[in-house]
Design goal:
Strand content: 15-25%
Number of helices: 45
Radius of gyration: 45 Å
Distance between the termini: 114 Å
Largest sheet: 8 strands, mixed
Region (Disordered): 29-49
Strand order of the largest sheet: 2-3-4-5-1-31-30-29
Helix content: 40-55%
Family: Belongs to the Rab3-GAP regulatory subunit family.
Shape: flat
InterPro entries: Rab3GAP2, RAB3GAP2_C, RAB3GAP_N
Structural class: alpha+beta
GO molecular function, one term: small GTPase binding
Domain Rab3GAP regulatory subunit C-terminal: 771-1368
Length: 1392
């Protein structure tokens, strides 16, 4: 029971507050590394470290905490104004003009424990005037006025002082309530005093007040006046927000303003309150002031005392006589967040009175009038010209004050006498606070009441005060007992913390309401920005007592000595046992004695015999004492622990007997035991064998681990004994299994007596329900060991039969129309278990035992019926049996189904050649009946879909497995299956068999369309997590196309588009339209969230999706909506609606709108596929077309119709011609140079689209002449020398005459290259023989336009003949074509 540092709250995201207050620190922090509670503070820039880091290395002390955080990122909290409400319901962090309000929220931590976390409730700027900054802040909780919550806080007001002199009051949401300008100098410090009940009649009752310190003045606002004004302003804000312009003037504030004189500088202050001098002090003060002949009043005057710290004097004492100055009244400057108006009244405008609207407007434009201060001279001080005070902190009882200075000293002042009574050295930049501890009278030892110096139990509690000093230079927090006491606690806490000491409680209480219930408050808090935690100090009262007066201190000394003794390593345990007995018997306080016994029982060094003997000795000692002197709680505690120790000893003896039974059970005996026929048993064994073979999950086992072994300390830690009943504490699942293994593991293996164990546990105080829970937890968690030892099933049967025969287990008079809670508990454990094989076996055993017991009950009732002639007894028993049996049969069917599913999910291919994504390596969840029942109608298909995604099976596999018979050696399964499966035919065959078995078990839930729909959705969900994995989206479309029912296909496609696609698709469109070309990788990643390669594949898949959606919409008119059924065993499923059900609820699409989007998608894909430039996709559409994009596909939109503007058609035609040219170019370049890897296309040509056909389709949709596109395609083919493909494409052209003219030019270019550019002698001679017109025409040709000049002359001859065929004889260029025939013939003669 020493001084301790307790962590009671965390920051949810302190880094967000730091980034808001210090924007320059945000830039240095990586964007993705935001931890909720950690701010590592490591700096990589030497400039950030600051010169102060050198000084700290010089003053380090050996005992200080080592730290590497020396950058500004860790010290940022020292530059902020910090305030915490004493009720811990609000914290304010402010810097310059900005502030962050933090509010507590209860949340679960990573370990599953509920804890309080401070989260940002409001953040923003508080400054109203230009250049003003926050200089001080307070969070004051205001008491509730409701009778039901008397003494509790209603809301918290934030008081903020500014460098402009303004003091403003805010709500928790940052709403400005009122503002006051009481002095034009900057506000230095705000402090508050709330009501405290006087400890005894001699103490003067203090009034509540808010004191504001300025450089040369102190303003004190009366607490009652402030409380009423704040309530009125808050009500006014609520009314104005609700109704509009309703204005109610709140009551004025009453304050006093003192001008402090005869002092150079003031840094901090403390308002002591009203004090009354004793007659002697009155005469001494009068003599000092007035001299020998001073007049003395009959009654001592009441005075308000103020203490300031600064320089000259270092500490100044001021006394203001009550009644010497009349309180000033100010009109409240009210700020109301109104819907209609924001009214701002005059601040501190003088005396009471109302102003006209005209006057108010004039006043608002200038600063409010400031009342002059009443002069107040310093009476005396502590003169020290070199010392400068930095802060002062008043103790809770107003008798002491601690002062810090620039010399690194902490000085303790006696407030009443004005003396420095103690000094601490070496505390530079110290932060101080106080803790007041009230003695707990119930902790006094009952047997020492009469002799104790405390007096009787009804006497007043004593109060102790401790000074808390935080030294940031050394990173240490110390607790000192005042006035002259020792240091009672020290903690290493780091160098970046802030110590918060409010020094007040709830405002608005009085001597009646303050005695009612009050919330828990922490007097002092330490904020650690590095760990993101808030801590408080717990100090026991006895630390304030001297050793002579404190028996508790002596007890604590004995406890420490005991702890040291328990840590010693010694082989002589008898000697240790003797010493421990002496120590624990010497301890006087019962609570300390209990604490000592707990530490002994938790010691892992002492053997069991020592623990038992020590507990027995203590119990005997307590029993032999008089009943009046014995603490009943301690006696009961010892007795309970001793009973648990005896139980541990008994169980250990039974487990050490090691009864080995070699009897093995045959299949027939096992079938009889489980009440199964041979076929059912063989099927069960086959299912378990498959599960065991596929479930290859390994568990880590250590050599020291022994099943069934449990240390005695752990045993005592897990169990509680109360009122002759043993219960298990709240422990983890693994600990629960360990406890159950200690009791039952040997019994389940047949190595221990089952009957003796059950009898021992029942007699010790275990309830049958608890034993059943422990037994089932062991059985279900040790699945692998159980499957290896089939005889354990018989042991479980025996154990379950014995537990069921215990008292209170099964009531024979149970209502026959209800279900037994005993068996329901067992069924519930099986339903929740994820170890399906063990659960299925235990369910079979439970069913068998339940049937056996029901038969016995039926036989008894039957005999009673015969003897007592009760004809209804037999029917009742059979009804009860049939009802429970139905539940067991249902559970067995569900567990069998779940086992088959889990076996399938465990199966996998041994070799995988394709690259796995990190998403595919994530483990699958383990199934249980409960999870399937809560997963909704689509839960079963969803789990299979996750497995298919993990294994990345081809959709054709699902169709294969759906066939009733799977051909083992046929060639059919190989069609459409990737090469991965062909390498492992055995694995594939096993997986197909498991899938087929799952289909048989779930004919409705795993319908082929349902499964494809879930697989499609799973793939697209995973693709959305990592858009770089384009193959996921492609595989999703494959599954979508495999869905046969058009209604399901339509709904899934529409949901995919709306949920995952349309946002990225629109981003890609706007990006490409902005850059006017195929965007680079960096832009794609920034705007669309994927690389340029992935975006190309994404647009291709989008086109597939839209086409599938249109096809499904057309086909749905000819199909019926499917009926979604559920298997009988799974009718009771609950949970989220399935994907297929959602798909069937989707509205029908507007076909033209989808077609409109498919045209845009084709254009975008073409731009990305061929890396086109100078193309803005949206410029191909008019305003109607643009407005229709990215709207809901089910809505009716106004689409382009009628004749299109020729300018649009021209732009569209140019784009389609580019597409054709790029497609032919890409095809020709790949065909020409297959080995050039640099020019290989992004997508293999075999999987690419038929771009000429697609271009013609786009021409139809975009109102472009299709024949122009076809002619251009023919020309491009001939241009690249692919004449055989060009001849085929000519057949599609309608206007062949125009085409012939264009081909004639291309022929001329080929001949011009052959004759003019090769510069051969034969070519020149041939050119001289040609007709002049032909020569002139050939010289005008530009062969540079040809992409393939290496075309054989024979191929060109065929082209000329084709041109002659297409040209009519009356055509103007027909004669030129005839000359070309002669020229080609002449060229081909020399080459032949």
């Amino acid at each position: 029971m020493a001084c301790s540092l307790h962590q009671f709250c965390y920051f949810q995201d302190l880094q967000a507050a730091r980034d808001f207050l210090f924007p320059h620190l945000r830039e240095e922090t990586p964007s993705g590394a935001g931890a909720a509670r950690r701010d590592d503070g490591k700096s990589t820039n030497w400039e950030d470290d600051g010169w102060g880091a050198w000084e700290e290395t010089e003053i380090q002390e050996p005992e200080e905490e080592e730290t590497t955080c020396k950058s500004q990122k860790s010290y940022w909290l020292q530059d902020c104004v910090l305030s915490l409400s004493p009720t811990n319901d609000l914290m304010v962090i402010a810097r310059e003009q900005k502030a962050v309000f933090l509010v507590p929220k209860w949340k679960y931590s990573d370990k599953g424990k509920e804890e309080m976390q401070y989260a940002v409730g409001w953040s923003g700027s508080l400054n109203v005037e230009e250049g003003e900054c926050v200089s001080s802040a307070l969070c004051i909780p205001l008491a509730s006025q409701k009778r039901s919550s008397t003494g509790r806080p209603d809301w918290t007001c934030i008081v903020v002082g500014f460098t402009s002199g303004y003091v403003r009051f805010y709500t928790e949401n940052g709403v400005l309530l009122l503002a006051q300008l009481l002095n034009e100098d900057p506000v230095l410090q705000l402090k508050c005093r709330t009501y405290e009940i006087p400890r005894h009649p001699g103490v003067t009752e203090q009034n509540e007040e808010l004191s504001i310190l300025y450089p040369a003045a102190i303003v004190t606002i009366d607490g009652f006046s402030l409380f009423q004004s704040l309530r009125a302003c808050r009500n006014q804000v609520a009314k104005a927000t609700a109704s509009g312009n309703e204005n109610i003037q709140p009551p004025p504030l009453a304050y006093k303003k003192w001008g402090l004189q005869d002092i150079d500088t003031i840094i901090d202050h403390a308002s002591i309150g009203i004090m009354t001098l004793s007659p002697f002090d009155q005469m001494k003060t009068a003599s000092n002031i007035g001299g020998f002949n001073a007049a003395i009043k009959n009654s001592p005057p009441a005075m308000s005392q103020y203490i300031t710290v600064g320089s000259n004097p270092f500490t100044g004492f001021f006394y203001a006589l009550e009644g010497s100055s009349q309180p000033l009244l100010s009109h409240v400057a009210l700020a109301v967040a109104s819907k209609l108006t924001s009214a701002l009244f005059n601040a501190a405008s003088g005396w009471l009175g109302w102003k006209s609207k005209h006057e108010e407007e004039n006043v608002q434009k200038q600063k409010p009038k400031v009342e002059p201060a009443t002069p107040l001279a310093v009476r005396f001080g502590l003169p020290d010209s070199r010392r400068h005070g930095e802060s002062i902190c008043l103790s809770p009882c107003n008798t002491l004050a601690a002062v810090t200075d620039d010399f690194g000293r902490v000085i303790l002042l006696d407030v009443a006498r004005g003396l420095a009574i103690r000094m601490w050295k070496g505390y530079r930049d110290a932060q101080i606070g106080w803790i007041q501890i009230i003695e707990d009278l119930h902790e006094r030892e009952s047997e020492k009441i009469d002799l104790s110096p405390f007096g009787n139990a009804q006497g007043p509690s004593r109060v102790a005060q401790f000074l808390v000093i935080y030294a940031p230079r050394r990173g240490i927090l110390e607790v000192w007992s005042t006035q002259q006491g020792p240091r009672v606690g020290a903690f290493n806490v780091g160098k970046h913390c802030r110590l918060l000491y409010p020094g007040y409680k709830i405002m608005g209480l009085n001597n009646v309401t303050s005695q009612s219930w009050q919330p828990q408050t922490y007097q002092i808090c330490l904020v650690d920005p590095v760990s993101g935690s808030i801590k408080t100090v717990n100090v026991p009262f006895h630390l304030a007592l001297s050793d002579k007066k404190s028996e508790r201190a002596k007890d604590l000394h004995l406890v420490k000595k005991l702890a040291t003794l328990l840590k010693m390593k010694t082989p002589n345990f008898d000697l240790v046992e003797t010493e421990v007995k002496e120590l624990i018997l010497d301890i006087k306080y019962p609570a300390t004695k209990k604490q000592a016994l707990e530490s002994i029982l938790a010691s892992e060094r002492l053997p069991f015999s020592c623990l038992r003997n020590i507990t027995q000795t203590l119990l005997d000692t307590l029993t032999n004492q008089e009943l009046e002197c014995v603490d009943e709680g301690l006696l009961q505690f010892c007795d309970n622990k001793l009973k648990l120790l005896h139980l541990y000893e008994s169980v250990n003896k039974l487990n050490s007997l090691e009864l080995y039974s070699d009897t093995s059970f045959s299949n027939n005996e096992l079938a009889v035991l489980l009440r199964l026929d041979e076929k059912e048993l063989v099927r069960l064994q086959a299912l378990l064998e498959n599960y065991k073979k596929e479930n290859t999950k390994t568990t880590v086992r250590f050599a020291d681990d022994k099943d069934g072994a449990l240390p005695v300390t752990t045993f005592l830690e897990y169990l509680e004994y109360e009122k002759d009943v043993i219960s298990v504490k709240k422990i983890s699942e693994l600990e629960y299994v360990a406890l159950g293994s200690f009791f039952f593991w040997k019994c389940l293996h047949g190595e221990s007596s089952t009957e003796d164990m059950c009898h021992t546990l029942e007699s010790a105080g275990f309830s049958p329900q608890l034993l059943l829970s422990l037994l089932l937890n062991v059985w279900l968690s040790k699945e692998k060991d159980i499957l290896d030892k089939p005889q354990s099933v018989c042991c479980l049967h025996t154990m379950l039969s014995l537990l069921s025969k215990m008292k209170v287990a099964i009531d024979e008079s149970w209502d026959s129309q209800s279900v037994s809670p005993w068996w329901q508990q067992m069924r519930m454990a099986c339903i929740q278990s994820e170890n399906n094989a063990a659960a299925l076996l235990s369910a079979h055993v439970g069913h068998s035992v339940a049937a056996q017991i029901s038969d016995n009950i039926a036989e008894k009732k039957f005999s009673q019926t015969v003897v007592g002639t009760d004809p209804e007894g037999l029917t009742d028993s059979w009804e009860a049996l049939s009802l429970d049996t139905e539940y067991w049969k249902l559970l067995l069917k569900q567990l069998e189904d779940c086992l088959i599913l889990q076996t399938l999910l465990h199966s996998k291919m041994n070799t995988r050649s394709s690259k796995l994504s990190s998403l595919q390596t994530e483990p699958l969840i383990s199934l249980s009946v409960k999870k399937l029942l809560e997963g909704g109608k689509g839960g079963i298909a969803d789990s299979i879909a996750k497995w298919i995604f993990k294994e990345d099976f081809n959709p054709h596999i699902l169709k294969l497995a759906h066939q009733e018979r799977i051909p083992e050696n046929s060639e059919e399964p190989k069609e459409g299956i990737s090469k991965d499966f062909l390498e492992e035919p055995e694995d594939l065959q096993a997986i197909l068999e498991l899938l087929n078995l799952a289909y048989q078990q779930f004919p409705c839930s795993l319908d082929l369309d349902v499964l494809h729909a879930h697989c499609c959705w799973e793939y697209v969900v995973q693709w959305n997590k990592d858009p770089e994995e384009a193959r996921f989206f492609i595989r999703s479309i494959e599954h979508l196309k495999s869905v046969l029912n058009a209604h399901v296909q339509h709904g899934i496609a529409l949901m995919m588009w709306n949920t995952f696609i349309v946002k990225r698709f629109s981003s890609a469109t706007y990006l490409m339209d902005k850059v006017g070309k195929s965007p680079k990788d960096r832009l794609c990643r920034r705007d669309v969230g994927m690389s340029d390669t992935a975006m190309t594949s994404f647009l291709d898949s989008c086109l597939d999706l839209l086409q599938t959606l249109m096809e499904a919409d057309v086909s749905s008119d000819e199909m019926q909506v499917p009926v979604l059924d559920t298997e009988d065993a799974w009718v009771s499923v609950e949970g989220p609606i399935s994907i297929v059900e959602l798909a069937l609820e989707q509205k029908h699409i507007h076909y033209p709108l989808v077609e409109h989007h498919s045209v845009l998608c084709s254009i975008l894909y073409g731009i990305m596929r061929f890396s086109l430039k100078s193309v803005k996709p949206l410029s191909l559409f008019d305003s109607k077309g643009k407005n229709a994009f990215f709207k809901d596909l089910t809505s009716i939109q106004l689409l382009p119709s009628g004749e299109m503007d020729p300018n649009f058609i021209s732009v569209r035609q140019q784009f389609l011609l580019k597409i054709i040219s790029a497609a032919v170019q890409l095809q020709h370049s790949v065909a020409k140079d297959k080995e050039a890897s640099d020019e290989a296309p992004i997508i293999p040509l075999g999987k690419d689209r038929d771009w000429p056909v697609l271009a013609v389709y786009l021409a139809q949709q975009l109102q472009v002449n299709e024949d122009v596109i076809r002619r251009h395609y023919v020309l491009e083919l001939y241009n690249y020398g692919v004449d055989h493909l060009g001849e085929e494409a000519i057949l599609q052209v309608q206007d062949q005459e125009v085409l012939a003219s264009q081909l004639l030019v291309l022929t001329g270019q080929r001949l011009a290259y052959a004759l003019l550019h090769t510069q051969t002698k034969e070519g020149m001679e041939l050119l001289a023989r040609l007709p002049p017109t032909l020569c002139t025409w050939l010289k005008a040709m530009d062969p540079q336009d040809l992409h393939n000049t290496e075309v054989p002359i024979a191929t060109t001859a065929k082209l000329v003949n084709k041109v002659i065929e297409l040209l009519p004889e009356n055509h103007g260029q027909y004669s030129l074509a005839l000359h070309l025939i002669e020229a080609v013939a002449a060229i081909s003669v020399p080459t032949s």
